[in-house]
Amino acid sequence: MRASRFIAAAAAATLALTGLTACSNESTSTSATGTAEGENVTVRIGTTDADQQAWSVFADLAEQEGITLDIVQFSDYPPVNEALAQGELDLNKFQHILYLAKYNASSGNDLKVVGSTEIYPLALFWKDHTSLDGIEGSEIAIPNDDSNQGRAINVLVQAGLVTLKDGADELAPTPADIDAAASKVSVVPVDASQTPSAYKEGRPAIINNSWLDRAGIEPSEAIFQDDPASEQGEPYINVFASRAEDVDNPTYVKLAELWHDASVAEAVQKDSRGTAVEVERPKNELNDILERLEQNQK
User: Fold this and answer.
1) What range does the record give for the signal peptide (predicted)?
2) Closest to 99 measured CA to CA, from 111, 83, 87
3) Does this chain's domain 9-120+236-297 share its CATH topology with 123-226?
4) Would you give the DSSP letter of residue 145?
5) For a tag on the chain, would you pick the N or C end, based on fewer CB atoms within 10 A?
6) 127 to each of 137, 202, 223, how far by Cα in Å?
7) Which residues, other chains included, contact 120 with Cβ-Cβ below 8 Å and sequence gap of 6+?
8) Structural Rg of the chain based on CA atoms
9) Homologous superfamily assigned to 9-120+236-297
10) Is 224 exposed, middle or buried (0-12, 13-18, 19+ CB in 10 A)?
11) pLDDT the model gives residue 147
């Protein structure tokens, strides 16, 4: 695709070895301050899923608006925000608001939300079952990482299977916050990559989208999922992020708007096998959520 220059395999290998940002060419991208008539700008944007069809559609659409996307693929999450904070990227799109809030709180940096994209429901799977019937007394495998553990517990809360103790952190509960005596199931935190194995062994498991795809599990097999429209879902809205001084950059704002074009939305649905739920929220509301989550981390 002519509008994007994707990272080469050798560069990806270098990234894995050094932990630093790898760029798809040696030149520095032009920081976009606007797109005047006939002016072309290049925006360097970092992600962890550049191979998805939506990126190709998005880049072609951006090119029609005079914006060339230099898409930088990362193999892991942690370096992406740091690369943005250090000015090696102009934007990134790989994370939800809670992940961004935790990064800001721990790093002391001040990245902001330029626009929203989608939310991906987190779901409970139980092999050869189509409902929650009979699940009482089960041990449910949940991902143990910071991004998904609290949300997984809240999936079980919404399903009526788990009760939290009084005073528990309702946004990001831990297994210690579960009132075992009042709950119908127990949880077993495991590495997210192991949740499909638990499912295939016949145990109920909460599995996020990336591992569903790798394990060949159909999203339609879920027996319960959280509600993307609920207040509990707000932290998990995926976003475009920039440095604070660039949050109103008209080119970046334009890109966030273009992501909601019907052609991109169609590609997102194909990439996610129909699980993505589009979210369009005002930028000020998204940054209010970010600030609230950051305060919760302190």
Assistant:
1) 1-24
2) 111
3) yes
4) S
5) C
6) 16, 6, 10
7) 208, 209, 236, 238, 272, 275, 276, 277
8) 20
9) Periplasmic binding protein-like II (3.40.190.10)
10) buried
11) 76
The pLDDT score that the predictor gives to residue 229 is 85
Report the C-alpha gap between 267 and 259 in whole angstroms: 10
What contacts 72, CB < 8 A, 6 or more positions away? 7, 21, 22, 23, 24, 44, 45, 46, 47, 50, 83, 89
Indicate if the alpha-carbon torsion angle 173, 222, 119, 273 is positive or negative.
positive
What region, left, alpha or beta, does residue 108 occupy, with left being phi > 0 and alpha being psi -120 to 50 degrees? left
CATH number of this structure's domain 123-226, picked from the four choices 3.40.1160.10, 3.40.50.300, 2.40.50.140, 3.40.190.10? 3.40.190.10
Strand, coil or helix: 205? strand
Phi, psi dihedrals of residue 51, rounded to the nearest 5°: -80, -5
Which stretches of the chain score pLDDT less than 50? 1-36
Beta strand spans in the chain (E)? 41-47, 67-73, 91-96, 111-116, 118-119, 123-125, 139-143, 186-190, 205-207, 224-225, 238-243, 277-278
List the chain domain ranges.
9-120+236-297, 123-226
Other beta carbons less than 10 A from residue 260's beta carbon: 16
